[in-house]
Amino acid sequence: MNKDDINSIKTLLSSPKAIVIIPHKNPDGDAIGSTLGLYHYLKSHNHKAIIIAPNDYPDFLKWMPGESTILKYESDTTESDDYIKDADIIFTLDFNSLSRIGDMETAVAASKGMKIMIDHHQQPDNYAEYMYSDVSMSSTCEMVYNFIDMLGDSDKINSDIATCLYVGIMTDTGSFRFPSTTSATHKIIGNLIEKGANNSEIHNNLYDTNSYERLQLLGRALSNLKVIPEYHTAYITLSQEELNTFKFKKGDTEGFVNYGLSLKGVIFAAIFIENQQENIIKISLRSKGGFSVNELSREHFSGGGHTNAAGGKSDLNLSDTIDKFISILPQYKQDLKA
Length: 338
Prior knowledge:
By secondary structure, the protein is an alpha/beta fold. The chain has two domains: about 5-205, inorganic pyrophosphatase (n-terminal core) (Alpha-Beta Complex), CATH 3.90.1640; about 210-330, Roll (Diaminopimelate Epimerase, Chain A, domain 1), CATH 3.10.310.30. Helix content is about 40%, strand content about 20%. Strand 4 (about 90-95), helix 4 and strand 5 (about 115-120) form a beta-alpha-beta unit. The model has no long low-confidence stretch (mean pLDDT about 95).
């Protein structure tokens, strides 16, 4: 985003506007954190802002300041459509293709509201008038911090904004251990703490809320863990029956795929989760080094993301999906060397 874009947006935001802020479907910590951070900032300038999420999200994100104001399109469709239709500006955060917002896509595409994208995923679609797209960034929350700073308003960051942005940076960097975590990221985190983000409390709210059933589900997932040594690959499967047995709730499998990646000698890990309601297998992929799970997911599993973290799906059943996964590994043998 260049200086002219920033000046134009600054002029646009100089008077109160009707603004809709949208994260991707099945929003994670970065999606909810970035939208709430931007929401609090815009409200401080007296804009009429509303966040509309395509669907619900895990309970461990529902403590964040302002979360109770978020509309869910799947249950608040008529009200949401009215906001989208009447919006002067639509911010799309943490995604770069309207296909990522599910049933909202038609309404958003048809809206005359000016669209502004803030996102760090690869290969963005060209749907927004203004695009702040940077794949080198750790998170969309880091980008929202920079966006506010570019507008000359870093002094407007209060404890609510700081808390929300901290959540997204921490979760999308794997608690600051992923390669996308830079010295600039740490400086921003330091500034957010100074602005009122309570890092210990945030960590406890996100990670110290396990239910007995979730830990039992993790045990089952680990018992299903398989390793393919010749490709330095590990994968986990969870069937719908197993999810039901342990009373699965949205978000319960968050982070499970990283256990496979933590194995010595493994540079590529996947988890395959059956979803009978959507009639798909949901897939999360992680890697170390230069092996691009983004490219693999785009090529074979209708997904995408980052070089080291991506998602996808399969319309095959669980068994056939695993067979397909194993069958494509030889194509990547040269890249899957430890």
